C-alpha cells in the first residue's frame, strides 16, 4: 500500500470518528426549534345589484393575515398572527384620523400552547381561538366569502384573551375545547373583572373518508355564560348536526342568545335566535365545487324589519394548492319593508380569491 493511500485512509477514518462523535454529542440534545412564517389574504370584487347609481362597484382586500408559528421541544407551540383589516366608521368620517376605508392592523392571535408527552390534551394561554368559530369555519371552509352567521351577526368572536384546554381522542372521534376568556374579543380590549366561560363538544357518530376533527357525521354543541363589561348577562347555546366527506359537506345549526346590560339606566334583556344551514359539493375528479348557505337571524325586538335572511350560492375552483377563486351571489332580505340603506346592500355579486404564501 502506498503512503498516499495510507494517508487517505487515515483521513477518512479520522473524519468518520469525528462525525460519530458529533452525532453522539447531539443525541441527548432536543431538536432545534422550527419557525415558519406564512400569510393568508382575501381579495374581492363586488357589485351591488340593487342600485347601480349609489351602490358599490369596487375591488377590496377584505382580510390579510401574517402568521409566525414556532414548534419547540417538550410539546411547546407558539403562534402570533397579525390581522390586516379595512377601517370602518358608521359616520363615514373615519374618526379622529379620518381614515375610513383605509387599512390598519391589529393582533389577532398571540399564545403559547403545551401538549405534554404528545398526549390528548393541549393547554393554551394568551390571545387564542375561542371554541366555536374556528371549528365551524374549518367545517364550512369558505371564510373567504364572509364570516359565519354567529360572527357576522356579532354574537361571537373568533379570538379572545384567556386560558383554554383542548382534547381529542380516537382520531378525533371525540374532541372538545373549553376556556375562560375576558369576553370582549380580540378587538374589544381586556374589559373589567368579569369573564366568560365557553365550551364546545363534538362527537363523530359515523365515519367517512374524512377523518379530520370536523369529518364524518357529527353532533356538536356549544355553550357560553358570562357577563359583559359593566355587568349584565351574555349567554349562548348552539347545537349542530353535520356531515362531511371528501365530496360533500352538509350542516344544520340552531342557536339561542341572551344579552342584557346593567350599565344602562334601565336593564334591557334581549333574546335572539340564529339558524343556519349550508352545503358544499366537490365534483369528483375535479377542482370545482359549488356552495350554498342560508342564515336566519331573529332577535327579540319590536322593529318590523329585525329578522334577516341571508342566502348565498356560488361556485369555486382550486387553481393551485395556495390559490382558490369563488364567484357567488349574496342576498340579504328583511322582514317587513327595508330602509333605503338596507335595500341597496341587500343583493351583491362577488368574485373572491383566497391565496396563501
Provide a concise account of the structure shown.
The chain has four helices and 16 strands. By secondary structure, the protein is mainly beta. A 16-stranded antiparallel beta barrel has the order 1-2-3-4-5-6-7-8-9-10-11-12-13-14-15-16.
Describe this structure as you would to a colleague.
By secondary structure, the chain is mainly beta. It has one domain: Porin. It is built from four helices and 16 strands. Mean pLDDT is 86; it is low at 1-21 and 90-98.
In terms of topology, how is this protein built?
Elements: H1 3-27, E1 34-48, E2 57-71, E3 76-86, E4 103-114, E5 121-129, H2 133-140, H3 149-152, E6 159-169, E7 174-181, E8 196-206, E9 216-226, E10 232-244, E11 248-261, E12 268-282, E13 288-299, E14 308-320, E15 323-334, H4 340-344, E16 347-356
Antiparallel strand pairs: 1-2, 1-16, 2-3, 3-4, 4-5, 5-6, 6-7, 7-8, 8-9, 9-10, 10-11, 11-12, 12-13, 13-14, 14-15, 15-16
Provide the gyration radius in Å: 25 Å
Q: Based on Cα principal axes, name the global outline.
A: globular
Q: Termini separation (Å)?
A: 58 Å
Our count of domains comes out at 1
Low-pLDDT ranges: 1-21, 90-98
Helix count, DSSP H or I runs of 4 or more residues:
4
Second CATH tier, the architecture: Beta Barrel
* Helix/strand/pairing category: mainly beta
Task: List key phrases describing it.
16-stranded antiparallel beta barrel, 357 residues, Porin, 54% strand, 4 helices, mainly beta, disordered N terminus
Amino acid at each position: 500500500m502506498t503512503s498516499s493511500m495510507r494517508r487517505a485512509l487515515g483521513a477518512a477514518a479520522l473524519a468518520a470518528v469525528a462525525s460519530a462523535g458529533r452525532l453522539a454529542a447531539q443525541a441527548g440534545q432536543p431538536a432545534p426549534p422550527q419557525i415558519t412564517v406564512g400569510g393568508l389574504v382575501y381579495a374581492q370584487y363586488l357589485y351591488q345589484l340593487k342600485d347601480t347609481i349609489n351602490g358599490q362597484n369596487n375591488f377590496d382586500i377584505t382580510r390579510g393575515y401574517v402568521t409566525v408559528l414556532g414548534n419547540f421541544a417538550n410539546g411547546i407551540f407558539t403562534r402570533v398572527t397579525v390581522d390586516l383589516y379595512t377601517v370602518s366608521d358608521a359616520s363615514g368620517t373615519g374618526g379622529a384620523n379620518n381614515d375610513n376605508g383605509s387599512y390598519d392592523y391589529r393582533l389577532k392571535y398571540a399564545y403559547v400552547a403545551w401538549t405534554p408527552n404528545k398526549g390528548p390534551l393541549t393547554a393554551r394561554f394568551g390571545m387564542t381561538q375561542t371554541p366555536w368559530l374556528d371549528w365551524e369555519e374549518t367545517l364550512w371552509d369558505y371564510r373567504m366569502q364572509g364570516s359565519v352567521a354567529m360572527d357576522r351577526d356579532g354574537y361571537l368572536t373568533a379570538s379572545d384573551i384567556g386560558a383554554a384546554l383542548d382534547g381529542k381522542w380516537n382520531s378525533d372521534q371525540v374532541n372538545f375545547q373549553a376556556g375562560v376568556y375576558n369576553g370582549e374579543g380580540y378587538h374589544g380590549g381586556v374589559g373589567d373583572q368579569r369573564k366568560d366561560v365557553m365550551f364546545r363538544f363534538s362527537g363523530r357518530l359515523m365515519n367517512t373518508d374524512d377523518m379530520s376533527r370536523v369529518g364524518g357525521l357529527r353532533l356538536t354543541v356549544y355553550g357560553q355564560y358570562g357577563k359583559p363589561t359593566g355587568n349584565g348577562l351574555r349567554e349562548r347555546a348552539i347545537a349542530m348536526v353535520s356531515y362531511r366527506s371528501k365530496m360533500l359537506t352538509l350542516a344544520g345549526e340552531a342557536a339561542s342568545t341572551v344579552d342584557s346590560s346593567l350599565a344602562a339606566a334601565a336593564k334591557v334583556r334581549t333574546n335572539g335566535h340564529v339558524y343556519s344551514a349550508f352545503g358544499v359539493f366537490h365534483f369528483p375528479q375535479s377542482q370545482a365545487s359549488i356552495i350554498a348557505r342560508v342564515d336566519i337571524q331573529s332577535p327579540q325586538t319590536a322593529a318590523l324589519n329585525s329578522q334577516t335572511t341571508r342566502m348565498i350560492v356560488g361556485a369555486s375552483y382550486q387553481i393551485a394548492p395556495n390559490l382558490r377563486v369563488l364567484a357567488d351571489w349574496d342576498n340579504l332580505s328583511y322582514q317587513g319593508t327595508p330602509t333605503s340603506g338596507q335595500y341597496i346592500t341587500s343583493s351583491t355579486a362577488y368574485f373572491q380569491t383566497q391565496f396563501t404564501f
